[in-house]
Amino acid sequence: MSPAASTATAEPHSAVRLEVLFDELAELTGQRNAIDGRIVEIAAEIERDELWGATGARSIAALLAWKTGSAPSNAATIATVAHRLDEFPRCAQGMREGRLSLDQVGVIAHRAGPGSDEHYAQLAGVATVTQLRTAVSLEPRPEPGPRPEPQASITKTSDAEFDFWRIALPHAESAKFEAALHSHHDALVTDWKRDREAGGEGSDHATPIPTNIDAFMRLVETSWDVEVQRRPHGQRTTVVVHVDVQQQVGSLHLGPLLSDSERRYLLCDATCEVWFHDAGEVIGSGRSTRTISRRLRRALEHRHPTCAVPGCAATRGLHAHHITHWEDGGATELDNLVLLCPYHHRLHHRGGITITGPAGELVVTDGGGQRLQPGSLARQPSTPPPAVGPCPGPTGERANWWWYEPFRPQAPPTTN
To answer: Where is the composition biased (Pro residues) (predicted)?
Structure first.
């Protein structure tokens, strides 16, 4: 058989295979859309009845990312659609029937104006996600208000080799920073000249002349050394507490009375300076105790670099927490310490979640006593897939935006 004949017989076979695979893909896509529609309804019910507050999650999106094993961006899309579910009943119906995808409805729910449900439910039946995003962007928007004044900021981006920092400062603060940078640069150049004269100009091991980067790093390291001497790394703050030995109540120095939960929260990772009072007179002071050393802090970060509450992936600004509290005789050692993000640390001391140990067998329960489990709720399904038709998907045609009529919100009624 000639090569041309082999190609001719292979082409119909490939077309048949593609048709079979596309039929199955359309059926599975319809079922997935219907399942996503039900997930959105569940998320809307959790938000409407405020059930998520008892789970220890900080938002609906965080709860969905944890429980469904989804990416944060996908969970945020579900939460966005759930939040505006009542505004887009036709689009939600399209998801339940398997005709519209979560991504399509997510674009609509993210920025579409009120009252646009019918317009976009019809358009989404033939438009891709990219086309829907363009259509929503063509909606007339109200005139923007005055632009806010620029704020001082510091941002960071990264690639495979470098981190890029961008700093925006008002002129006065910028002048202060520039003067400090020049001062450190001059000091480095002076040291470099002295070393060069001592070692001889022809030395093979002469160091290059200092740059502004060297001056900036010297500025950072110098201020860091001063801060470490003033407040060691493991000591987040110093808490001065006044305790009345007769009434057994405590208050902050020159501040209000403390509840038990507030006192325990402040003392988790701090220096505590206690002054005892009797009948209004100071009768003595307790010792000042630094609870978390730098070495212990590094060990905690190496063991578990994120917040210890299941479902929370926070890594910055973590607090060291005593599982058995320091006031109750809990030891300041690795088995009795975990790292918590500020949100979950406060939530624990307010009674929203319970944390018991030791740290190697940590148990975290929500407000209802249910244990919080890491990982998603995904399991082998026990019910048949939704009985919906195949999803035809967008037409794939090129959009001619010249003829497109964007949605125009109705003007509010005028009062005569």
So the answer is: 382-393
C-alpha distances (whole Å) from 119 to each of 34, 320, 409 are 21, 52, 11
Please, which residues have CB within 8 angstroms of residue 374's CB and are 6 or more apart in sequence?
310, 311
User: Residue 204 domain-assigned?
Assistant: no
pLDDT over 90 at 262, yes or no: no
Establish if 74 belongs to a structural domain. Answer: yes
For the beta carbon of residue 287, count every other beta carbon within 10 angstroms.
7
Residues 6+ apart with CB under 8 A from 147: none
Residue 268 to residue 260: CA distance in whole angstroms: 12
By CB atoms closer than 10 A (0-12, 13-18, 19+), residue 248 is exposed
Query: Under a CB-based contact definition with an 8 Å cutoff, are residues 278 and 246 in contact?
Result: yes
Are 32 and 385 in contact by the 8 Å Cβ rule? The answer is no
**Structure-token match 């973590």, residue found:** 318
Q: Where are the alpha helices (DSSP H) in 138-280?
A: 171-199, 212-230, 260-267
Domain holding 117, by residue range, is 9-137
**Range in 6-10, 34-38, 311-315, 379-383 the model is least confident about:** 6-10
* Tokens at 73, concatenated: 């961006």
- Which residues are CB-neighbours of 356 under 8 A, at least 6 positions away? 323, 362, 363, 365
